Amino acid sequence: MRYTARMPNALRKLWISPQDYLAAERLSEVRHEYVDGEVFAMVGASRRHADIVANIGLAIRAAARRRGCDAYLNDVKVRVEPANAFYYPDVVATCAPGDDDPYVVHSPVLIVEVLSESTEAVDRREKRVNYQKIPSLREIVLVAQAERRVEIYRRQPDGWAAETVTGGDLLLESLDSLISLDDLYAG
To answer: How far apart are CA 93 and CA 53, in angstroms?
Structure first.
């Protein structure tokens, strides 16, 4: 077998454009996230994860509707333009009147990620940092599964501030709403 000088190129990853990713994603049976030309398949969730997403998602959806906003669970992507990324958060809310793409939220005010062993590192580091680059975003909520613990990151005039909630109510300033941790962790 003969190798050519081009052999190192065989290891180079294929770069996919955002447009090609979006077109393929509409036809795919498996959800994928997109980060600067690379595509990553999403893993399935546990029942515990699904219960928490449903509980917080229904509460956020009701709060969003009261304010004339929209909220979506699991299957709607968020565009992070500065990071050239598309993610599927567990819950996303938008209040922007022109944010009407049928598959992608471009101007979220609130994003929720329910943490799991397989996703926690990416959710805490990559996603949270990239989400913070979205100009419209006011809050990021990270929900633990193994314990009653919710971290809220809120945009402040001078940066982002973090708060941890382990009991009582979770205040979502972006939607002017309270969610009981008992309700969030029910089931």
So the answer is: 13
Q: Give a yes or no: residue 56 inside a domain.
A: yes
Q: Nearest 5°: phi and psi at 25?
A: -65, -35
DSSP one-letter string for 53-92: HHHHHHHHHHHHHHTT-EEEESS-EEEEGGGTEEE--SEE
The angle formed by the CA atoms of residues 88, 89 and 90, to the nearest 5 degrees, is 120
**Residue 171 lies inside a defined structural domain of this protein:** yes
Q: Would you state the structure tokens that stand for residue 186, as one six-digit string? A: 């029910």
Residue identified by tokens 């609130």 is 110
Instruction: Name the pTM for this structure.
Output: 0.90
Predicted confidence (pLDDT) per residue in 49-85, tens digit: 999 999 999 999 999 999 999 999 988 999 999 999 9
What digits encode the pLDDT tens for the residues 86-126? 999 999 999 999 888 999 999 999 999 999 888 898 999 99
What is the rounded CA–CA span in Å between residue 168 and residue 1?
68
Flag whether 123 is in a domain.
Answer: yes
In a domain, 8, yes or no: no
